[in-house]
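Tokens for chain A. Residues wanted.
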């Protein structure tokens, strides 16, 4: 091969490599910008969970499991640390899933961890029915996983905070087998006009609702409305309020622990 031909070949290889690197870098930059500023998303409707759930094992005999869903923009690690300290020593395994990031209409389309899209915080706001259905299927799959590992459904609790609490109520009450209990902290009721028709075996399942009296994001009235509606088809509802905003307190966590222990006794 002549020197000129060799030079042309080398230049061509360098050009191709440069183009590949450039496209890769710009593709990465576009992905990063979409992630930060909530541009067009490639997420499919079947994508609900992000990283694997945080799990803390029961101390001693594994008697029961609590599956607990975090709120908007959060991850499961914080709730895992808080709840495990209260429940693991009672023989209760704690599973705290992580939501995948998605554009959230309520927050101007910005991407953040969310179990479904939130279009508003008014009782009359449009709901993300497909997203709620997909998240509910995921919650049911987590329950089924615990059942497959030998924990009876009657020993499984499902709970959550804020939008995770709303998911817990919906998924827990509509599950096809009897559960130990449902826990919702600072939550609300999804699909309140149709959910009763989807409830079968969990019409007597104990439900714990906790809410901050000074909550500016999910007002106390939402919790009160949830209590009133759920009680129309499930009388076993406990509703307690606490001196906090959109958060939890040690008093509330103690009440949750006592609620769980009572159902297992």
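Reply:
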């Amino acid at each position: 091969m002549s020197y000129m031909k060799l030079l042309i070949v080398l230049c061509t290889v360098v050009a191709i490599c440069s183009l590949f690197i450039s496209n890769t870098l710009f593709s990465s930059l576009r992905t990063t910008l979409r992630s930060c500023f909530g541009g067009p998303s490639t997420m499919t409707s079947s994508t609900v969970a992000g990283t694997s759930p945080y799990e803390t094992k029961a101390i001693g005999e594994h008697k029961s499991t609590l599956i607990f869903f975090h709120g908007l923009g959060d991850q499961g690690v914080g709730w895992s640390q808080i709840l495990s300290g209260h429940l693991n020593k009672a023989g209760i395994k704690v599973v705290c899933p992580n939501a995948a990031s998605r554009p959230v209409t309520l927050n101007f389309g910005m991407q953040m961890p969310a179990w479904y899209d939130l279009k508003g915080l008014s009782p009359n706001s449009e709901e993300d029915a497909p997203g709620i259905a997909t998240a509910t299927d995921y919650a049911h799959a987590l329950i089924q996983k615990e059942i497959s590992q030998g924990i009876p459904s009657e020993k499984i609790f499902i709970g959550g905070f804020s939008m995770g609490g709303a998911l817990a109520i919906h998924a827990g009450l509509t599950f096809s087998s009897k559960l130990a209990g449902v826990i919702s902290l600072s939550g609300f009721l999804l699909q309140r006009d149709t959910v009763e028709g989807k409830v079968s075996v969990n019409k007597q399942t104990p439900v714990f609702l906790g809410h901050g009296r000074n909550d500016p994001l999910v007002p106390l009235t939402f919790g009160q409305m949830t209590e009133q509606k759920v009680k129309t088809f499930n009388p076993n509802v406990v509703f307690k309020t606490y001196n906090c905003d959109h958060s939890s307190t040690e008093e509330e966590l103690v009440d949750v622990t006592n609620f769980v222990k009572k159902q297992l006794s």
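The chain has two domains: 1-37, 54-264. The helical segments are 3-37, 76-87, 129-148, 163-173, 220-230, 250-264.
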